[in-house]
Design brief:
By secondary structure, the protein is mainly alpha-helical. Helices cover about 70% and strands about 0% of the residues. Helix 2 runs parallel beside helix 4, helix 5 runs parallel beside helix 7 and helix 7 runs antiparallel to helix 8. The longest helix has about 35 residues. The protein is globular, with a radius of gyration of 18 Å.
């Protein structure tokens, strides 16, 4: 079987290339934030969640504790647990594949699989995107870490703003209704107010608590905001 003839594989690999290249920015920012090459590689290999990785190094670089950094990273990684339950039902991995599937269940692999109607294509899309992103993200993390050490001060090149840009990139596709947009604005204001008042790492936790309270007492759809960030197919192309 020629896997490259599969629409899901083509989409998965294209997403993998685009996402993997972004690993350069993480590696560079991590290196310039004080993490050595091995620590940077460990974050990409083991944590393997872009938003969570940026949160972790951002909190530590700002002077926050390891506990605060891990809590912030975990909050951003909750969505992957939700994806995992969905992918387990769609992909049905068995044996050792379940452990691999758990590691590569991210926005991109979940979105590629969910965009297919054929069970075989779902599996091909999931694995091609998941493994593709994992390999390329780690390769370009190393490249970025080596470049970041050579670049020196992150402020000189604007790398200190990469984490903010990453968070905005993750957030923007999710603001599909007025209620999520309103929650995002409220949490942003809470964070701005909290930054000069509390220790590094705590503002994002306070904002998360505020978002949780709004969600608990709100009346939006329960699944709103849990959709994958990437929609590889439009409605008219999903059946191809």
């Amino acid at each position: 079987m020629n896997y490259l003839q599969s629409p899901a594989v083509r989409v998965g690999l294209s997403i993998a290339v685009a996402t993997g290249l972004y690993g350069v920015s993480f590696g560079a920012l991590s290196a310039t934030s004080g993490f050595d090459l091995w620590q940077t590689m460990a974050l990409s290999l083991l944590l393997f969640s872009g938003g969570s990785q940026f949160a972790f190094i951002g909190v530590v670089a700002g002077g926050g504790t390891g506990a605060a950094a891990m809590t912030a990273a975990s909050l951003l990684g909750i969505r992957n647990a939700v994806y995992g339950m969905q992918m387990n039902a769609l992909i049905r991995p068995t044996g050792w594949r379940r452990f691999v599937a758990a590691q590569v269940t991210i926005d991109e692999s979940a979105a590629t699989a969910s965009g297919q109607t054929d069970p075989g294509e779902r599996r091909l899309g999931f694995w091609s995107a998941g493994i593709g992103v994992f390999v390329l993200w780690n390769v370009f993390t190393v490249v970025g870490a080596l470049l970041g050490t050579a670049l020196g001060d992150p402020a000189q090149w604007g790398l200190d703003g990469a984490a903010v840009a990453a968070f905005l990139g993750l957030l923007w596709p999710r603001l599909r209704a007025r209620e999520p947009a309103a929650i995002a604005v409220v949490c942003a204001l809470v964070t701005v107010v909290a930054v000069p008042l509390v220790a590094p790492g705590l503002p994002i936790l306070i904002a998360a608590a505020v978002a949780g309270a709004i969600g608990w007492f709100g009346h939006g759809r329960p699944e709103e905001g849990l959709e994958p960030d990437v929609e590889p197919y439009s409605a008219g192309e999903a059946g191809r």
